[in-house]
Amino acid sequence: MTRLSVQAVTKRFGGVTATGDVSFDVPEKGVTAVIGPNGAGKTTLFSLVSGFLTPDQGRILFDGEDIVGMRPDRLAARGLVRTFQLVQLFPDLTTLDNVKVGQHLQTRSGLLAAVLRPGSTRREEAAVSARARELLALVGLLDVADQPAKVLSYGQQRLLEVARALAAGPRLVLLDEPAAGLDAAESKRLAAVIRTIADQGVTVLLIEHDMSLVMNVADRVVVLDFGRKIAEGAPAEVRAHPAVIAAYLGGVEIADG
Amino acid sequence: MADPTYIAQVLVSGLGTGCIYGLIGIGFCVIYNASGIVNFAQGAFVMLGGMLTQLLLMRYGVPLLPAAAVAIVVVAAMGMLLERLVVRPLWDRNATMFVMILATLAAQIVVERATLLAVGDQPRTLPVFTDVPPLMLGRVAISVQLLWILGASALVIAALTAFFRYTLAGKAMRACSIDREAAALQGIPVKRMLALSFALSAALGATAGILITPTQYTAFNVGVPFAISGFIAAIVGGFGRPLGAFLGGLLLGLVQAGAIAALGSGLKNVAALSMLLVFLFLRPGGILGAAK
Amino acid sequence: MKTLRSTTSPDWRSALRLLPWGLSALFVGYGFVAGGYPATVIGFALVYAVFVTGLNLFMGYTNQVSFGQNAFAAVGGYMSAVLTTTYQWPVVPAMGAGVAAAVLLALVIGYPTLRLKGHYLAMGTLAIGLITYEIAVEWQSVTQGYLGISGIPPLGVGSYEVTSDRGQLALLVAIVLASTFISARIRDSRMGRAFLALGASENGAMALGVDVARTKLLAFLVSAAFAALAGCLFVHVVGYVSPEVFGLHMVILGFTMLYVGGVGSVAGPLVGALIVSLMPEVFRGFKDYQDLAYGAALIVILIYAPRGLASLFDRAKARPRSADL
């Protein structure tokens, strides 16, 4: 089964083609990674898939349904949840409350229930708390649950964003460079988390710069360059692909060197 | 009602106030372009211009033109003071747009109340600049004050155009409006531009206030309605386009004159405010499209 | 990282968190003991506390801009005033109708207005407040223009009217406590978290399925209801209403109180309203300079203590659970 199908999607800003006629499929199972050098159009692609941008051309199918033009919150309600490259946490809320916001769609209580707090709302709140703690334990942030998100280290904030996205109960989660800024231990934790998510049946699509993470966790890799797909396949195949070596891997070594 | 002379007369008077709104609207644009700030204290300059001229003239017997000139310079200085005391500290602290708006609105109130304490709440007016009978265009009377307004507005716009086109400071301000960071990298003193834009904008407001006072009146609390009208002019013309703002002002003046003729002067402000909401809801980019 | 459980350690930090409440209790207690004029001043402060609680919900929680809350206070206040005087309605249903009318108005104008951003939203809401003011002046057949409406009955239920200073104060205390309680409960709930989330990052909230437009509108409606309630309380406590009550003065005063007390905190509106209302009483001759001083104070706070007095408490505590109760 195909979870997500990107079909001939094009997005231009002024005269610049950010994403040009890109097509690829994301299978229901496993972890798919989109890689490419900076400016390859990865983040634009994510914004198109998650409804923050609308493509000029092409179709995007999520579980067989065309989702072009749908608002991000509607997509989240359908089970498509993203994280951001520049973290979009709620800095003054506690770590725990950040994850609780992630469960917005899982819960129903309105304003009246907030004020009157009937039994059903109290039970819902208790369940929300328990689930939030579970997710924080998964990403290793339980001991900072009561700290405001803004005091967390950058790596912790990235992990929190992942936990928060999972709280929304996605069928497909889009992770935008989740390993950026993580230290080695955090990066390892993240890889384990991503594997766990995938094993629980959630489809993972990630954009990543960190090739070691991609090679470790991805089942399939899509390579973009200048807004076009230049290769697609298993990590080992892609790594050996001449166009990829030319366009990307070489460039990264120079850039990182 | 449908008397063409009457309608023409109404439109002529709308043209005069329209010019004033246009000048105030340009004042909004000048600051906005230089800094991205919307100065909600703009009306204070308008009020102060008229008020200071009136005081100099009536209390100290300064002749009109020197009094107006002094008032414009003083108000420009006050614009810089506002920038220094209120805007710059917030700017340096990266205050949000909302905080900046609230602070300038508070500054408006402070100026208003200080004026009330200093000169009381009596409405004051200025004599017309030249006391000659109105020109008759057919049966439509055109007051000489209107000619002063039209002439001064044309002069101001010509001067501004020359300033932005030919002077170094003007070019620097235009550069700021296109891309502030790039301008800063090019060595343009962005903060000095901010101060200059407040001075310029205050001078524009004061000029507008002086021109309109003979046909209406001034009091401590006329600032906010004028500011709103100027803001409407700026929005109608596409925020950040000085010429658009002037045209927007003319349009607003005509619409408002029409509303007064049809509904009575009590609903003058309601008519202007409703026009603002219509534009905000339906065409926030204005007639010409926003500059950015 | 170590966890701080402030609830189990009754140290000076949690004591500091109670300071705003203690301060408020002290002021209100003084009003009770003194009665008369001090009770009236504290009563006004409490009415404003309700208004600012609504402002805080919309601005402090969802981080949106409204310079037009006076519109809802005016609609609520005038509706209740007209219904009780011209139409002889009892007070409670009239106030209910006033609040309902204001919420309805908020619904109608909120839909197009809340789509605006930045200075457009600021000016749009300001315009709504000013239009309401102008209408209150011009619609003389109903509002009697600048003259105002007098002889508005005091608060009370049925034939029981609260007329004494102390009785009125007690009633207002109860209403303020209820408002603050509602505000606190909302803050710590699913919808409250959605308010705070979209206030911090609209994109972040949207990505998690929060319907941003709807949630903003909801916060707007609640804040309008508080503003309208404050408007109703005002006219019945004073017994008189004129357009001046709901002018731009009310907007600046409300913001000053909100910023003095602390934006986004639960206790802020109450403390802010009390402190700002008492300022003119403490300083002799201050009255003439009231609005001037409020405006100047607001500017100074915006520059030097943008989170209000609450930020001073915050700096002292090492931020355990951020409920600024």
Automatic annotation (TrEMBL), chain A:
GO CC, one annotated term: plasma membrane
InterPro entries: AAA+_ATPase, ABC_AA/LPS_Transport, ABC_transporter-like_ATP-bd, ABC_transporter-like_CS, BCA_ABC_TP_C, P-loop_NTPase
UniProt xrefs under SMART domains: AAA
ABC transporter domain ranges (all copies): 4-251
Keywords carried by this UniProt record: ATP-binding, Nucleotide-binding, Transport
PANTHER family reported for this sequence: CONSERVED COMPONENT OF ABC TRANSPORTER FOR NATURAL AMINO ACIDS, CONSERVED COMPONENT OF ABC TRANSPORTER FOR NATURAL AMINO ACIDS-RELATED
Record protein name field: ABC transporter ATP-binding protein
Annotated organism of origin: Alsobacter metallidurans
Gene: livG
Automatic annotation (TrEMBL), chain B:
An example molecular function term from Gene Ontology annotations: transmembrane transporter activity
Major location category of this protein: membrane
InterPro entries: ABC_transp_permease, BCAA_transport_permease
Transmembrane residue ranges: 6-30, 37-58, 64-86, 98-120, 140-164, 193-212, 218-236, 243-264, 270-291
Source organism superkingdom: Bacteria
UniProt keyword terms in alphabetical order: Amino-acid transport, Cell membrane, Membrane, Transmembrane, Transmembrane helix, Transport
Membrane topology: Multi-pass membrane protein
Subcellular location: Cell membrane
Ranges in coiled-coil conformation: none
GO biological process: amino acid transport
Pfam families noted in UniProt: BPD_transp_2 (PF02653)
GO cellular component: plasma membrane
UniProt keyword DNA-binding present: no
Similarity comment text for this entry: Belongs to the binding-protein-dependent transport system permease family. LivHM subfamily.
Record's protein name: Branched-chain amino acid ABC transporter permease
Organism: Alsobacter metallidurans
Classification lineage: Bacteria, Pseudomonadati, Pseudomonadota, Alphaproteobacteria, Hyphomicrobiales
Gene field: livH
